[in-house]
């Protein structure tokens, strides 16, 4: 009974964390305060609890305190999102603190981090087993004797594994796996470790994502200005306008008006979304300015379903992708190239393709492009757009990329349409 009360106190403290996050001007301080309160609440009753006999198998690190120790150590790493580097840190922290034989941290596709007993079949980059995929699909916890599993466990005596899903905003985004070198009945504390750690990491990831979205929203206009009024872009367009002013004054005047409109749009809109027609106008202005600079080397096509024009899309979503296609795809191509933007309605979704027939992206770099904190490029950057899409609509709305060196690149954006909008007329 006492243990149950302590767990309730601890998790209520974590609930307070969310409330503090919404009200406290420095969210990371709020999280740290909440974690400290949770640990303190647990320790208030630790003396009495420690005096009682244990009947749940061999003693070991207490699950409640271990969970909060891990949460406290995990915070700095989770700020960077769930990628290979942060997952490796998390695996090391969990394996060291929970005193298990091995730990794996995964996303929905592969092992991201591994710590403890070596097993070549489960090193970072290894694809997930069907058991792990099922665990994430039904969001349940599984306890398995690895000797009963075939394939990837054949060469590693890993004993028993507890697999728990990592869930953010109702969607499985990965899993944590604790391995104990025993084929006997698993001590109950290991199951408590897995459940508590998974819940803690899931909650922290939600808080981190909320903080990231708030930061992105607060900084969007400043980042947009920094992206659009880039020294190179402004310098090149002004040089083009000056050149036209000597030979085609009317054309120079048109470009100058277009440049003013381009910057004006960076400042005018307020809110996280914008009608597709406005985003397309913005892209058209950008490409017109770049076409004046590149001449016959740059062509573009904008093909948009008229029924989709009023569908709201995240502000500054298409222009960074188009800019990336021009700067990193076509400008490095020795012959004329084309950028195309195609938008169509498919059922209850708006699907947009941004394509170029430029130099393409090396296969080795494609996985890293959308990884949190590692995206590169001009403007808001591909990783920034990908993060905003997932934050607004969920992990299933991640950007999709297809690229081949020497042939070009296509990025697909899928946006859900609200049920109360009628776009079938």
What does this structure look like?
By secondary structure, this protein is of the alpha+beta class. Helices cover 50% and strands 19% of the residues. The protein contains 13 helices and 12 strands. It has helices spanning 2-23, 27-44, 46-50, 63-78, 84-98, 130-138, 188-228, 231-247, 249-268, 276-294, 318-330, 363-369, 382-393; strands at 102-106, 111-116, 142-145, 160-168, 171-180, 273-275, 298-304, 312-314, 337-346, 349-356, 400-404, 408-416. It has a 5-stranded antiparallel sheet with strand order 2-1-5-4-3, with helices on both faces. The protein has a 5-stranded mixed sheet with strand order 7-9-10-12-11. A hairpin with a 4-residue loop joins strand 1 (102-106) and strand 2 (111-116). The longest helix is centred in the middle third of the chain and has 41 residues, at 188-228. The protein is elongated and about 85 Å long.
Helix content: 40-55%
Estimated share of beta-strand residues: 15-25%
Helix-strand category: alpha+beta
Cα Rg: 26 Å
Task: Name the strands of the widest sheet in spatial order.
Answer: 2-1-5-4-3
Q: Specify the overall morphology.
A: elongated
Overall pLDDT confidence: 77
Order of helices and strands: HHHHHEEHEEEHHHEHEEHEEHHEE
User: How would a textbook summarize the main sheet?
Assistant: 5 strands, antiparallel
Enumerate how many helices there are, as a single number.
Answer: 13
Oligomer: single chain
Poorly predicted runs are 1-56, 375-380
Number of strands: 12
């Amino acid at each position: 009974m006492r243990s149950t009360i302590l767990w309730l106190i601890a998790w209520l403290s974590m609930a307070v964390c969310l409330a503090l996050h919404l009200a406290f001007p420095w969210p990371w301080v709020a999280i740290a305060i909440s974690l400290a309160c949770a640990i303190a609440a647990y320790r208030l009753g630790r003396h009495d609890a420690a005096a009682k006999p244990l009947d749940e198998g061999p003693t070991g690190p207490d699950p409640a305190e271990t969970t909060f120790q891990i949460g406290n150590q995990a915070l700095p790493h989770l700020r960077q999102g769930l990628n290979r580097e942060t997952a490796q840190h998390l695996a090391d922290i969990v394996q060291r603190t929970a005193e298990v034989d091995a730990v794996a941290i995964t996303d929905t596709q592969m092992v991201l981090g591994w710590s403890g007993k070596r097993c070549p079949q489960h090193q970072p980059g290894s694809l997930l087993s069907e058991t792990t995929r099922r665990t994430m699909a039904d969001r349940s916890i599984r306890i398995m004797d690895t000797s009963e599993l075939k394939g990837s466990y054949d060469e590693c005596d890993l004993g028993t594994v507890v697999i728990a899903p990592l869930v953010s905003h109702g969607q499985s985004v990965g899993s944590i796996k604790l391995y104990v070198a025993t084929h006997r009945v698993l001590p109950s504390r290991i199951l408590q470790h897995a459940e508590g750690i998974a819940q803690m990491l899931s909650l922290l990831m939600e808080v981190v994502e909320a903080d990231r979205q708030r930061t992105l929203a607060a900084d969007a206009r400043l980042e947009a200005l920094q992206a659009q009024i880039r020294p190179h872009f402004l310098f090149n367009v002004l040089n083009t306008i000056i050149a036209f002013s000597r030979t085609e004054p009317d054309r120079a005047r048109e470009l100058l008006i277009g440049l003013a409109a381009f910057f004006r749009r960076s400042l005018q809109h307020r809110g996280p979304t914008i009608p597709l027609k406005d985003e397309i106008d913005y892209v058209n202005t950008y490409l017109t300015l770049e076409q004046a600079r590149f001449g016959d080397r740059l062509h573009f096509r904008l093909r948009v379903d008229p029924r989709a024009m009023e569908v709201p899309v995240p502000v500054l979503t298409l222009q960074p992708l188009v800019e990336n296609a021009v700067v990193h795809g076509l400008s490095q191509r020795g012959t004329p190239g084309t950028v195309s933007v195609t938008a169509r309605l498919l059922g209850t979704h708006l699907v947009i393709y941004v394509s170029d027939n430029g130099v393409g992206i090396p296969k080795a770099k494609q996985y890293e492009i959308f990884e949190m904190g590692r995206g590169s490029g001009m403007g808001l950057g591909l990783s920034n757009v990908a993060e905003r899409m997932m934050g607004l609509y969920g992990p299933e709305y991640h950007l999709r990329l297809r690229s081949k060196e020497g042939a070009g690149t296509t990025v697909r954006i899928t946006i859900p349409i609200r049920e109360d909008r009628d776009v079938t007329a």
